[in-house]
Design goal:
Largest sheet: 3 strands, parallel
Shape: globular
Low-confidence stretches: 83-98
Strand content: 5-15%
Distance between the termini: 14 Å
Number of strands: 3
Number of helices: 4
């Protein structure tokens, strides 16, 4: 049985995994998330923003979110889309990957 990939618990861990090619990180096409990452001034967030821009890792709100996931995909989801509140970034992992 293949070894399970560790799940990043922070954006710093996610950035490290993205930089090694073990994960990809999708953001909404309709958001300014990529610009915020690039302009954050925080090294690991800037690296995430650069990877997103370089690889065009974006999805549309009109897409079925379940179709976006493979075992090593993280996704930036506005909390408003999940709970009806102001948006906050979060890392989501499909249940079947755990």
């Amino acid at each position: 049985m293949p070894e399970k990939m560790p799940v990043p618990k922070t954006f710093k861990e996610l950035s490290e995994m993205v930089s090694t090619g073990k994960y990809k990180f999708l953001i909404p096409k309709e958001s300014i998330g990529g610009d915020l990452l690039l302009g954050s001034g925080i090294d690991y967030l800037v690296k995430l923003g650069e990877a997103i821009k370089k690889n065009d890792w974006k999805y549309s709100y009109t897409e079925n979110i379940e179709n976006l996931f493979v075992d090593t995909t993280a996704i930036l989801i506005p909390t408003a889309g999940l709970k009806g509140t102001l948006w906050i970034s979060s890392v989501y992992q499909r249940k079947s990957v755990r």
